[in-house]
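Ticket #4471: complex job returned nothing on first submit. Input attached below:
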Amino acid sequence: MDCEFVPSVCSYCGTGCGVLFEVIDGRINRTLPLKSHPVNQGKLCIKGWNLHEYINSYMRLKGPLVRENGRLEKATWDEAVNQAARRFTRIKEEHGPDSIGVLVSAKITNEENYLAQKLTRAVIGTNNVDHCARL
Amino acid sequence: MDMVKAAKELLLQDRVDIFLGYHKLDGHQIPHGFTKARVADLDQLEISLNRYPLEKIACDLAQKDPTLKIGILARDCSQRALNLLYTWDQLNPENIETLTVNCCPSSLSTHGDCSYLKPKTTGEYKKAHGIDYNDSPKDFMAEHDSQDRLSRWMYEFQKCIKCYGCRNVCPVCFCKECSLEHPNLVEPGVLPAEVPIFHLIRATHMAGRCIDCGLCEDACPAHIPLRMLYREVNDAVSDIFGYVPGDHIEKSPFSIIGKTVELTPAPMDV
Ligand code: SF4
Ligand code: SF4
Ligand code: SF4
Ligand code: SF4
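Support reply: We reran it on our side without changes. The output follows.
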């Protein structure tokens, strides 16, 4: 039996607490706080303590889905991205760039958030970009 | 290092299938399960000043494979936790090998491999309104009347963010169904935590059970002096029943499931 511990960062909010995944035979079994992490110093909130539950959830989405005729169908990333790009372009042409808004998330990294606002401003052409942490 | 040699021997002689210790990864001292297949990794074995509940990890492994033989780097608190887990049938002592580390409890000692041997500092506001981490339950009882004690504990409890970290990290909290998640006792999804009931449920469960490792207090984001609370209940258990959890492989006076027992209560000093 294999048992190793993998340090990571909690993906639930922008605080970025250090976590330690207990991995038994390749499956995450428990989440512990990373004691030597400068942000949380060995403490977590209830969400961080339960990270392994959503990672192992059978309801977790592991690939893109595209809505076809009202039903969500499995698709490849290329299909999904192309489909989204096509529809956004149509909305932008018909109703103008300010008809689109982008809401980014604390669950993605700082750098990904930066790229999302860049896409919103430079590609879509709107300042309608906001963040879930601005409650 | 002798510890490395001893751990290698345990694995190479097949006396254990896995050895739980610590190593350094990305600059963090974290637990690791060493195996025979990669026995050379043991050269990186560390004692680590950060303590993690290795006994709880051993329980996780034993649950997946009850025949697994597990070696553990064991501090004093780990050994108390293991004794307790043996008496509650969570681990089989025949499947556990320990390698003990220096955790000298003597104040004359200049060195001990444990973060817990450093006294914690308590801020002035906490000293005035709450509870000093380093206070002993007996002094605390003697120095404050019951009204004052209640208001100090309530000051501490109302900071709780209900993270369940105290229970999650605790090596002796192994219940399949935890009372702290029972909707009739603790309403789910409600914040702030219901105080003091949330903490008193856990305190009563820790009577005759808490081995005073301090991991809960380390994990508490609200800086609640949990060890002191459980020391207080355990003082009552040792005064009345003469039982100190984890001291020996001896069942707690409260393990009465399936038996008829007579507990002789003694008067409590209030
Ligand atoms: S543990 Fe809680 S506070 Fe820390 S990053 Fe995760 S969700 Fe945020
Ligand atoms: S000190 Fe805390 S974590 Fe350790 S055994 Fe007692 S209740 Fe559990
Ligand atoms: S708090 Fe009580 S019920 Fe919950 S796991 Fe610990 S001992 Fe069991
Ligand atoms: S660790 Fe502290 S804050 Fe979290 S549930 Fe326990 S007492 Fe409350």
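The first helix of chain B runs from residue 2 to 12. Closing as resolved unless it happens again.
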